[in-house]
Amino acid sequence: MLSLLALCAAPVVASYFTFYVIKPSGSAYGELITPTVDLPADLPLTDLQGRAVAAESLKNQWLLTVVQPAACPEACERQLYVQRQLREMLGKNRDRVDKLWLIPDDGGMPRPELLSALSQKGVEVTVLRVPGARLQAWLKPEAGKALTDHFFLVDPMGRWMMRAPADPEPKKLKGDFDKLLKASAGWDNAGR
């Protein structure tokens, strides 16, 4: 009888031991932003043709965001490539993530060949212009880094909630995305 009681009590004892002695803690490769920062409703966004885009239209989808100038030097192209690959690595969850390129300047257009390369497989990158000062009031780089060094993740409710380290390891960053997408599967739907 005592062995049966010990067998039934073992999971309860193990859970208390784990919680109070081992103290498991979650960790992320990217930096979780606490508290999250809401997408400003009055953020002045325009598309490449100069048409106004409501910030509200960016909600209801995870946004894997990069901030790069329109000239897009080699480091920018590499970051846009990694952005595309990260989304593709998500497999069946890739439709829950949109790619967003924010251009923090007023002049210049990205090269047409770059824009066409970004639209492979029918999945385009949303490219929007935003005044640099307003962008820096919303997204913040790591100390000693620039906005162009990071990927920023915005949740479907329009809150900036994660910043990837500069030059991230895609496999580790994908691990963070997998955890977030799994945790949000009950309330998040694919597509805006």
How do you describe this structure in short?
The protein is α/β, with parallel strands linked by helices.
Main beta-sheet annotation: 6 strands, mixed
Query: Termini distance?
Result: 59 Å
Class by SSE composition: alpha/beta
Give me the number of helical elements.
5
The CATH homologous superfamily: Glutaredoxin
CATH topology: Glutaredoxin
> Strand sequence of the main sheet, in spatial order?
1-8-7-4-5-6
How much helicity do the residues have? Answer: 25-40%
Number of domains: 1
Extract low-pLDDT stretches. Answer: none
Shape, please? elongated
CATH class: Alpha Beta
* Strand fraction: 15-25%
Topology, element by element:
Elements: H1 2-22, E1 31-38, E2 45-46, E3 52-53, E4 62-67, H2 74-89, E5 97-103, H3 112-118, E6 126-129, H4 132-138, E7 151-154, E8 159-163, H5 170-183
Parallel strand pairs: 4-5, 5-6
Antiparallel strand pairs: 1-8, 2-3, 4-7, 7-8
Task: Describe the protein.
With 192 residues, this protein is an alpha/beta fold. It has a single domain (31-183), classed as Glutaredoxin (3-Layer(aba) Sandwich), CATH 3.40.30.10. The chain has helices spanning 2-22, 74-89, 112-118, 132-138, 170-183, and strands at residues 31-38, 45-46, 52-53, 62-67, 97-103, 126-129, 151-154, 159-163. The strands form two sheets. The protein has a six-stranded mixed beta sheet with strand order 1-8-7-4-5-6, with helices on one face. The mean pLDDT is 89.
